[in-house]
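Checklist before submission:
- one chain only
- standard amino acids only
- sequence pasted in full

Submission:
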Amino acid sequence: MPRQSPLPVDPIAEAKRQWVAHGWSDAAAGMSAVTSVIRAQQLMLARIDAVLRPFGLSFARFEMLRLLAFTRAGRMPMASAIARLQVHPTSVTNTVDRLVRDGLVVREPHPVDGRAAMLVLTDEGRALVEGATTALNAEIFEQPGLTEDDTTELVRIIARFRKDAGDFSDPRPAPDPL
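Returned file contents:
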């Protein structure tokens, strides 16, 4: 998709002005915040998609491969992957189906639970995700488009929002050793 030239006015600021003009002042700041986050996500995903395209990966496929590559043996139960990726089981199943079709992941029977499946990263999958990770680090994550201080502040704000929304809880402190 060709890069568009900047708009002469910030459409989110204009939407906020319109919200206030229509008597929705109490909702204007929230609408502006939500819309800004959604637009920022679109901009970030467009950059990520451009980097992952040469690898033949979507961000969902990359996340699954990276998750498996982080494990000691390159394997985990499907249910664990679903929980960690925080997406609908059907979406994970569809992603895994494509990764299996492409020879990047295989499904194996769970060693204990006969109803469950283990996802196993193939050597080809590991090589692909390592290359994609190197590219994402260099082209996106090392230069996200924000200063280091802004990046830190943004992550803190969003983490607080996510925690308050029930997305995660702080880990319990480990007891002191005896």
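Reviewer check: The domain at 57-140 is CATH 1.10.10.10 (Arc Repressor Mutant, subunit A).
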